[in-house]
């Protein structure tokens, strides 16, 4: 029932805002999002962590009984974590907009709340139709937030965002409906849209069909993530969106894509995933390096962070397509932690933008001298984003990389394994392997390059402020020495007629926004177990299916003539065939190798 | 000589009692021919966690000071207190550990940091797997050795810094000590970790603190650039380390030392049987990956270029982080995972060559520099090369002993340089300072500098640096495979002695003269007095009065620390000198860095461990030869830089420079390595980034827009009523998908 509350409270808040005066909008929004946070506590308390793989807290109502559509919500460990992120970012986004949004606040806060409700709906939907409706509905509030409250180029950004993701999602819809249709064919025309029920059907589709479904799913989810090369809407949307919009975008909206991949690409078409994981992984790796290097030459600090999402989400999806426990756990952790650290970076940049009305790094520099508190937060979150161990970014990144490192069917065989001792291999099946991981790993270096470039420019160095701001004093108000247009702008941003006051360094409200995020970054870096142990079974059930498919795949490949495994030069021919349990695949590989080697001589 | 040693040994006993009571019998037992010391694992005492926790507490307290905007020396006080506490706990831990049988490794469980449990099908059987990286400590004698000097020196240097940084009280003072304590915490994690991932945490943590402290003077663009360079070059190494850790996990199924060492045992047995080919190739890759991390952190070729630039940081930072402790982390990593390095036929030879070449290269650069702190930085790079070479020529004792002695004397050298820098307004140019040691109030600094220089130059018998360096040289010549390494290191020893005493003879003795630098700390030196131009005056301090500048002689904290270190530099002589390695040998020999597989390794590598040096025993011969080489270096420096020198700016060496042609200039310009890297790595990468940037803008996004505009143009003529925009991007989307589909197809083909 609490889940319904999570969905309803933001909507109620939005309705309340519509009927309340403009100046009260932000307070109502803050109250609504805070209640949602409070409501999340009993959800966590009531969650059975020992059975985190099963859907819990479920509520189900018939919706369109003739089509089998239900209004069904429920969460497992993975949804719970993402739900937590969504709920937590709610009040933070509202509070971050207090001084930034003064024009038409009612519309802003109402849509922000609706957006939260829609994202909440995605993460707890158990019915495909409900999932898709919420998934698509996120577009409208975001479109409005960007197009009404964005910066100069907002119209183009909003339209591009909308249509790019919308078109992709339509193709995804086709894929999902196809699965449902197949299900109805197999069940005498009875339609069912239950996500778990459909999974069973989808998994048994022929491999080629699964491939097409995967392509359809990728069309929507890859755009949303975004993966290279369908990422170009993201930097534009991020740059133009208001701060709160960017935070939601980076924090949770992108995670709809990765969550979709987790839930449907892995859950529905594991066979196709096993086939095509390498292709997706290559796109990820390209994105990691390509996005990272582009960050390095940005002038616009917000665009830099936006492109960093392309690189970061590359790691996230790389872990996902590793198709093993380490990689997928890393990937889900990455979803949470990227939301925290990148969201916080956008907040920090928003605070600077509010003060200096520029995002150009040539006009900003050495702010440590003027804003030590802000600088501390900025360096902290940049380090979290770099993936410094002890902060939240490290564990997911490392697990994703280990996952992809492990995912190679050649581990344990031939040159890739042990020849003398009976040491088991700790690799998993797959096509990714160490080389891909090595290339992806250079993304760690590139991340340090661009984030330290940004920090070195904006935080350290001699003080540089945009024209109109005096660099001499370190105290007093941010606007007090600005003349002309800045004063006018400051007054325009004013809410009630009195002077808009933002101190030179952060004010209490801003610290209160950043501090919980900083705390979480540290806490999840030091004790990630709180997350990993709450989703291990949920991921395990996915991995089990994937592993079966991978074994099947490796078996099929064994049938082909090309050897999968390099022939070990030092192995004696008899060694392989002498092994017990010759019926197993692993030994078959050995036998074949040995046989081929013999034939080769 | 022996009397001296015995006396010092006695003194040492008196000083720290049982702490250092290493029985000579034990020393003999762990000698060359001794059998392997079996590693046994046991749960350790929980109070060991305090070693790590106290520096963290100091960091938190300093952070609170920063929040409370404390404008006193409180953070320094808190830091020194906590670090001293950490040192005492380490000492207690060491004493208790010393009572255990040799080879005991304690594992102290903190809390579960990363833990994943899962199942996996192997041979149709479901096996349980786990990835465990706990916050746990691994305490063996190697850990104790390292932590004793890390916490001890950190305490002393924090005390020194409390005075050195005093002009920043109320400004960066809190920040400095917060980062300083965080560094000690990270270093403790690195050294005491019971698994490679926690080591990685410490590894990157010290990198972060190094970044924050090099960039401490953040308004200076050069400091910011140096900090960034250090972090990024370290990250390149870190990638190697990370891959090594992953390889370890995939091969051994664990990242915990305990499991890794246990699973290494069969490989060690193969090694002992001389069957190196029985060790799987994939395991042999592990050390190759790990060493890249070690080269990054310990500033070896090709990643050494960050360390000289790191001298932008405050001098206590250079002393602690960039000389004594952090940069030895790479040596520690190899010593800790020594069994893994023995597994590969190529790993240790590569380490030996990298170490030896770095030692030589850095020494040649150091000879041609004028900034005394930079000279010390290059000498650090060079000495680190010795340590790597030591590990690689199979004397892990020599390598560790050199780390140990180097930590003391190099910290002392840096702190003495720092005192000069502090007193002469940032002046570090050896052409602008002379006779500092005989100026009033500078006696302690002069003596400390002399002691440090003697150690670095390897002055025979009485210095600890001589003994540790000698072990490495002797072992290199004794090893038939490493003769070339030995010659390079011997040459480097001579160069080292020369450039070390070049600094000493130029700056600390000779005619008194100085020009202040351009840094004015606070207001205690009066108003801007520009550069003190004392040229042509032999007695610089007489003229300086006219400029209103008075050298700022060090106070009690700096002098105390320097005096303590100078005494310690002699106290540690018996610890490394007695019985081919003394106490350090016992410590290393009972740890994972034991080299009891040495013989087996050499059989496998078809080498010989008892090569003669021109018919003499290599170890004995080296004691004489390296003494002579060191003394020659000192003598050359004496003739060229002291004898008959009347000014600060010039010496007899200047007359010799033309004889070297352009080589001297090249060395002075650091062989243009920075420029080379810039040209072959940074610029191409930047160009690639720009290409990607425009490719993204014009091609990928352009394609999206193109697919969008085309139907709009067509549709515009056919159906003018339609808005077009929607279609535009819908088709643009399709364009993006088409690109993706093409990629998919290409890859699948």
Give structural notes:
- The complex is a heterodimer of chains A (601) and B (749).
- Chain A is an all-alpha fold.
- Chain A is built from 23 helices and 2 strands.
- Chain A has helices at residues 2-18, 25-46, 77-96, 105-124, 128-137, 139-149, 154-186, 195-203, 207-224, 233-240, 243-268, 270-296, 301-320, 325-356, 372-386, 394-406, 433-458, 485-492, 508-526, 529-532, 536-559, 573-577, 585-600, and strands at residues 56-64, 69-75.
- A two-stranded antiparallel ribbon of chain A has the order 1-2.
- In chain A, a hairpin with a 4-residue loop joins strand 1 (56-64) and strand 2.
- In chain A, helix 3 (77-96) packs antiparallel against helix 19 (508-526).
- The termini of chain A are far apart.
- With 749 residues, chain B is mostly helical.
- Helices cover 66% and strands 6% of the residues of chain B.
- Chain B contains 30 helices and 7 strands.
- Chain B has helices at residues 2-16, 24-29, 49-67, 74-98, 141-164, 173-192, 196-214, 221-252, 257-272, 281-297, 306-309, 315-324, 329-336, 338-342, 347-367, 372-392, 396-423, 443-457, 464-478, 483-508, 540-547, 556-571, 573-577, 582-589, 598-604, 618-641, 653-656, 662-668, 673-718, 725-748, and strands spanning 40-43, 104-122, 125-139, 433-434, 513-514, 612-613, 616-617.
- Chain B has a 3-stranded mixed beta sheet. A two-stranded antiparallel sheet of chain B has the order 4-5. A two-stranded antiparallel ribbon of chain B has the order 6-7.
- In chain B, helix 5 runs antiparallel to helix 6.
- Chain B is globular, with a radius of gyration of 28 Å.
- The termini of chain B are far apart.
